[in-house]
Amino acid sequence: METPRFLSGKLLLAMPGIGDPRFEHAVIAMCVHDENGAVGIGVGHQRAGISLRSLLEQLDIDPGQAPDTPVLHGGPVEPGRGFVLHSDDWGGQDTISVDGIGALTGTIDVLKAIAEGKGPSRYLVALGYAGWGEGQLDEEMTRPGWFTAAGRQDILFDTPTEERWQAGFKAEGIDPKLLDSAAGAA
């Protein structure tokens, strides 16, 4: 079987028993995956004790029109760095397009635009990211642990955070209740 490559725009869903508690029931929106490595934003777990409005206040940005939405745990790498995964109806400094998902911005201009009511129509704010070095994700994909699903905006933007993992599997025709955490060998 050929190793899947270039997973940008896909969702990575952690299989039960992945063996790394940081990724238990993880849903990662893959934003970049090329020969140099991969970057994804976790969208399946909320950060405890922080909301968008409180984050904006910490950054000395008047929250203005920003709703008090949760901030997500984007991943274990650089957990203090912010990212906004958003619809492609807004673009700013260093915004990158992510096929099937929308766009990703990691600069403060998107947060200012959201607070002013001039930002993207749909967005998720996350702290941290999941990152893999050159060939690392390709190697991980040859072993049990991750399931690749289509990047679906409805799962990202319309499904409550705590339901995204199950919704990702269900959208692929898999009942997540039937997944076994014990890997087998034939």
Automatic annotation (TrEMBL):
Tell me the InterPro entries matching this sequence.
AlgH-like
What superkingdom does the record give?
Bacteria
Q: Name one GO cellular component term.
A: cytosol
Q: Which Gene3D superfamilies match?
A: VC0467-like
Q: Offer one Pfam family short name for this entry.
A: DUF179
Which SUPFAM superfamilies does the protein's record reference? VC0467-like
Q: Which family does the entry's similarity section mention?
A: Belongs to the UPF0301 (AlgH) family.
Identify this protein by name. Answer: UPF0301 protein D3M59_10570
Q: Tell me the organism.
A: Sphingomonas edaphi
